Amino acid sequence: MTKDMSRFLIVILSAVLFLKSTGGVLADQDWEYWSKYSFEIACSERFGLDLQPEFRFKDSFEEYYYSKTYFGLYYKLNKFLKIKGYYAYKTKKAKTVWKKTDLLYLDPTLQFNLQDTDLNNRFRLEYDFDKKELVYRNRLKLGKSLYKTLVFFIKEEPFYSFLSGQFEENRFSVGSTVKVWRQARISGEYMLKSTKSDSQWQTVNVLVSGLSFVF
Question: Does residue 12 lie in a domain region?
């Protein structure tokens, strides 16, 4: 067994022990499953198209309640800065009715690669046409290559609403990405999603799977 693989197993074991030790707390919380897909098509060296469908299930994965599809463009200014712009169509189930929403996104992203470590900061602006609400989301992601095509990552993303003037959501995630072949990657992560309701924070456990293609 290689040193990198040993480190990866230690990280996985530590995560399992942590989740087990907090089992009493997590047992009373809801679980969700999010399935994400990404298709990035290069039109030139710097410019391309991006399509991202997403589906969500709640009540311990039993109820399909949410879908969102991003249609966008991206432009690479240099090796450190990439800018994406999206239109997104969202549907969300409220009791027995599906509500539809149109959104716009602007995503400037800074990325730095230091040997086997990646630091990624996405500065996202999200505008909801129905709520007339602008939200700023700052996602900081730290990735570490553990074994050839395997990358372990940790992410933190707070949400700030300009409408309410306060932070209303936070997402903390740990997971890994595997490069299946040159143009495809799969990922899996555990997310602790915290949402502010009135003056209290409510948390949900989320399992997220991802499949991405770059052409």
Answer: no
Domain hosting 110: range is 30-214
The number of folded domains in the chain is 1
176 is written with which tokens? 């890994």
Instruction: Specify the amino acid at residue 35.
Output: S
Indicate whether this model's pTM tops 0.90: no
18 in any annotated domain? no
Cα-Cα-Cα-Cα dihedral sign, residues 30, 31, 35, 36: positive
Report the C-alpha gap between 189 and 202 in whole angstroms: 20
Cα(20)–Cα(167) distance, rounded to whole angstroms?
29
pLDDT, tens digit (0-9, with 9 covering 90-100), for 58-80: 998 989 999 999 999 999 999 99
Is 22 a domain residue?
no
Alpha helices in the chain (DSSP H): 3-21, 23-26
CATH number, residue 115: 2.40.160.40
Euclidean distance between CA atoms 77 and 83, whole angstroms: 8
Residue 88 is given by DSSP the state E
The long-range contacts involving 6-9, CB below 8 angstroms and separated by at least 24 positions, are 7/146, 8/146, 8/147, 8/150, 8/152
Structure token pair of residue 64: 């399909």
For 122-170, the pLDDT digits (tens) are 999 999 999 999 999 999 999 999 877 899 999 999 999 999 999 999 9
Q: Is position 128 within any domain?
A: yes
